[in-house]
Every structure is written in structure tokens, then in C-alpha cells.
């Protein structure tokens, strides 16, 4: 029966990783895969994560099943981290999920149950897995333009114009902060305008929150989407700890629902637990326990926040250095937006042919749409990179 299977389209990022690994050139630069890297090029295990993991290993007394909805301490820590004190926590429910992808998948299934017929709006461009998962689930997709290539900023007018077609009950997926792939983010005024639009038109936001703390700070990054969540009766958040706790392969995430009433939140919780039962019964415990231990201990929390700040500042510092070097080498302001952007990614705005020239002639690897993982740079790479870009676009 397996003969009937069609070959799957190659994942572009995975192919890029393989091509990079096979490249024998010294000084090649990998800006492809979206993981944080430090100056030595490694994706570190964070200090607080290591300490919590070690402590949990000693303290653990059983491996028996936990609750279907997830570990109680984990969920109690995750809810206030996501929503702050903007809403009554009695209206909030959360389900432990295997990473942010798992959280989004659970939330899509919840929406499918609660709102058959809803359309799912995603930004154009967006993290490709949004569209892929929705397609896989057979859910209808609509797109709103998001990014203005010419200015490097959010094209808010175009976004709002497209959302004029939204129907009551539609789900609008928004990146909570650090938009992937563009790096361009909504400001507080734009979040407020979207909130008013949602309240008027009856659409429900689903916030994809995969980079909290990697933009301007934990509170700063949360301010926009929290202001929206606080003013609307219903919203959802798909949270990932892959990046901000560095737990990538261990898979910690949460599907969070803010309901209109505590009773509705209870209904949502029952549905989320049932969805878990159907998918995999129980989400993996190990990484969620690490997050719970860190967030449940003031010293570990402070250390996690300090290390997250260092990571964030490394990325922002690289952004400033990159923008300066590109300005110098190209003698133009074309790339100034890189310093304004936040999060791990920016799109350089090159053509696919220019991206290919950078790879072939200079050993610089980025995704075909010219998305760069800023954390992939070593400070020493920047001058050579800027010179290569200047030569390529000349
Ligand atoms: N949303 C966005 C926008 C992402 O970039 C990612 C990770 N690349 C995720 C969700 C999911 O992350 P994970 O499943 O690894 O936690």
C-alpha cells in the first residue's frame, strides 16, 4: 500500500542544513535554521534549565501518568506568564502541549469543534507551518498582507483592508511578537486598532507566541497582545518554550484559552483534555517540569531572565552592527530596517538569484526568501557578510 504514497516536497530549511553541512569551505555562514546561537555558534542549554533538570532528576519519585490536561504546576506557572494580570485567571485555561507546534495544532482542533465553518487568517508571509498544518487539517485559509518590502515595516493599511473581509467567528492568527519570517512587528497603536476591529467584527485572535522575551523584554514583548487579550471576550495563545527556554527538542508548549466566563473556560478545558486523549493522551512531562521548576523558584526565574536578556541583547547588538556594516558597504540606507526589527529573523529583501549567489560564491546560507537567522552570525562574520551582499546587489 505504501506504493500509493507520493514523495513529500522537500523541506527547504532541512535541505539548506544538509547543503551547509556538506560545504567544505572555511568561514561559511549559516543563517538558515531558526535556532538561537551564541558567539561560539552553539545553541546552549540555559543555566536555569540545567539546574532545574538536575534537581528534578533527584526529586522525582514516579513516572506514572499525570493529568490529561497537563501538569498542574506547569499550567499554573504558564497562564500568568502568558496573560500577566490583564485578565481574571478564572477565565483562562491551558493545556500542556508538545512544543508550540503541538499547541497550535490543539487550538486549531478546538476551533474546529467550537466554530465549524470558521476561516483561518494568516499573515502573508508567515511561518510556513501555519499554512501547512491548516491545509493538512482541511481548514479554510485566508491571508492578510503583512509586510512592506520597500520600507521593511508592517503594511498595516493593507492588513486592515484585507481584514475587512473577515466574517464573524473567523480566527485571525497573529504573531505575538518577533514576527517570523519578517522581524517587523505591530506597535501598540496597531494592536489597539486590531482589537477594536475584532470587537466590532467578532473575530477571535489566536496569538502564536514562540519568541516571548527575545524582542525587547518579557513584559515589553507581551504588552501588545496582552492589551488585545484584556479587551476581548475570547482569545487564544499558542505558547512555545523552544526558543526562550532553549528546550527545542524536549518539546514544551501550551494551548491557552481566554474564555468569556469561567464556565466557558471549563468547557474549553474539557475539550482540550479530550483532544489530548485522542492525539497522544499525555504531553511529554520532562521539559514542562523543567519550566515549572524554573518559574516556581525565584532564584532560578531571575537567572533564566538574566540569561534570556543576554541572548536578546546579543541579537539586538548583531542587528545594529549588521545595519551599520551594510550601510557602509552599500552606501545606502536600504538595510537600516534590520536594526529596527526584533526577534531572530529579518528578510534582507534579496531576489532568489541573489540568495543563490551568496551561497555559491560566498558560502552564506539563508532561506530562499532571504530570511536570515540573525543569531546565526558571529560578530567577526559581519564585515565579510556586508561586503558579499554589496558585491552581490551591485
Ligand atoms: N510559531 C512560530 C512562528 C515559530 O517560528 C515556531 C518555531 N520555529 C513555532 C511556532 C513552533 O515552535 P516549536 O514547535 O518548536 O515549539
Look at the helices and sheets and give the structural class.
alpha/beta
What is the CATH topology of the largest domain? Aspartate Aminotransferase, domain 2
The ordered H/E elements are HEHHEHEHEEEHEHEHEEHHHHEHEEH
Spatial gap, N to C terminus: 53 Å
Bound ligands, each once: 4'-deoxy-4'-aminopyridoxal-5'-phosphate
The total tally of domains equals 2
GO cellular component, one term: cytosol
Subunit structure: Homodimer.
Domain Aminotransferase class I/classII large: 27-388
Organism: Rubricella aquisinus
Q: Could you explain how this protein is built, in words?
A:
The chain is α/β, with parallel strands linked by helices. It has two domains: 12-46 and 301-393, Aspartate Aminotransferase, domain 1, CATH 3.90.1150.10; 65-296, Aspartate Aminotransferase, domain 2, CATH 3.40.640. Helix content is 47%, strand content 13%. It has 14 helices and 13 strands. It has helices spanning 12-22, 47-59, 72-83, 99-114, 128-136, 156-163, 188-201, 218-231, 262-279, 286-295, 298-330, 337-340, 352-362, 382-393, and strands at residues 29-30, 92-97, 120-124, 141-145, 147-148, 153-154, 171-175, 204-209, 235-240, 253-258, 345-347, 364-365, 371-373. The strands form four sheets. It has a seven-stranded mixed beta sheet with strand order 2-10-9-8-7-3-4, with helices on both faces. A two-stranded parallel ribbon has the order 1-12. Strand 5 (147-148) and strand 6 form a beta hairpin. The longest helix has 33 residues, at 298-330. The radius of gyration is 21 Å and the shape is globular. The chain starts with 11 loop residues before the first helix and ends with a helix. The protein binds 4'-deoxy-4'-aminopyridoxal-5'-phosphate (PMP). Residues 34, 99-101, 127, 175, 180, 208, 210, 240, 242, 248, 253 line the site of 4'-deoxy-4'-aminopyridoxal-5'-phosphate.
Amino acid at each position: 500500500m505504501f506504493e500509493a504514497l507520493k514523495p513529500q516536497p522537500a523541506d527547504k530549511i532541512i535541505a539548506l542544513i544538509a547543503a551547509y553541512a556538506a560545504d567544505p569551505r572555511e568561514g561559511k555562514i549559516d543563517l538558515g535554521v531558526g535556532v538561537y546561537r551564541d558567539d561560539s555558534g552553539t545553541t546552549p542549554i540555559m543555566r536555569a534549565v540545567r539546574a532545574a533538570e538536575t534537581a528534578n532528576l533527584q526529586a522525582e519519585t514516579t513516572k506514572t501518568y499525570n493529568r490529561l490536561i497537563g501538569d498542574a504546576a506547569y499550567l499554573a506557572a504558564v497562564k500568568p506568564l502568558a496573560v500577566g494580570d490583564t485578565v481574571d485567571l478564572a477565565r483562562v485555561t491551558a493545556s500542556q502541549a508538545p512544543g508550540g507546534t503541538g499547541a497550535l495544532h490543539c487550538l486549531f482542533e478546538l476551533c474546529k469543534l467550537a466554530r465549524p465553518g470558521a476561516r483561518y487568517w494568516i499573515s502573508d508571509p508567515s511561518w510556513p507551518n501555519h499554512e501547512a498544518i491548516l491545509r493538512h487539517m482541511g481548514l479554510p485559509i485566508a491571508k492578510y498582507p503583512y509586510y512592506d518590502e520597500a520600507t521593511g515595516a508592517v503594511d498595516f493599511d493593507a492588513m486592515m483592508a484585507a481584514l475587512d473581509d473577515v466574517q464573524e467567528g473567523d480566527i485571525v492568527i497573529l504573531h505575538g511578537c518577533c514576527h517570523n519570517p519578517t522581524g517587523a512587528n505591530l506597535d501598540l497603536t496597531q494592536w489597539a486598532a486590531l482589537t477594536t476591529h475584532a470587537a466590532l467584527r467578532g473575530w477571535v485572535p489566536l496569538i502564536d507566541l514562540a519568541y516571548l522575551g527575545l524582542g525587547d523584554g518579557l513584559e515589553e514583548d507581551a504588552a501588545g497582545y496582552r492589551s488585545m487579550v484584556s479587551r476581548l471576550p475570547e482569545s487564544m495563545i499558542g505558547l512555545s518554550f523552544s526558543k526562550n527556554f532553549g528546550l527545542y527538542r524536549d518539546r514544551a508548549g501550551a494551548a491557552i484559552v481566554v474564555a468569556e466566563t469561567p464556565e466557558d473556560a471549563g468547557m474549553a478545558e474539557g475539550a482540550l483534555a479530550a483532544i489530548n486523549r485522542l492525539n497522544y493522551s499525555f504531553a511529554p512531562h520532562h521539559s514542562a517540569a523543567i519550566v515549572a521548576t524554573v518559574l516556581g523558584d525565584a532564584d532560578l526565574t531571575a537567572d533564566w531572565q538574566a540569561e534570556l536578556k543576554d541572548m536578546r541583547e546579543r541579537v539586538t547588538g548583531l542587528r545594529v552592527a549588521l545595519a551599520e556594516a551594510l550601510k557602509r558597504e552599500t552606501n545606502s540606507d536600504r538595510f537600516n530596517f534590520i536594526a529596527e526589527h526584533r526577534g531572530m529573523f529579518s528578510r534582507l529583501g534579496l531576489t532568489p538569484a541573489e540568495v543563490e549567489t551568496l551561497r555559491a560564491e560566498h558560502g552564506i546560507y539563508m532561506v530562499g526568501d532571504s530570511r536570515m537567522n540573525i543569531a546565526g552570525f558571529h560578530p567577526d562574520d559581519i564585515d565579510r557578510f556586508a561586503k558579499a551582499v554589496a558585491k552581490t546587489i551591485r
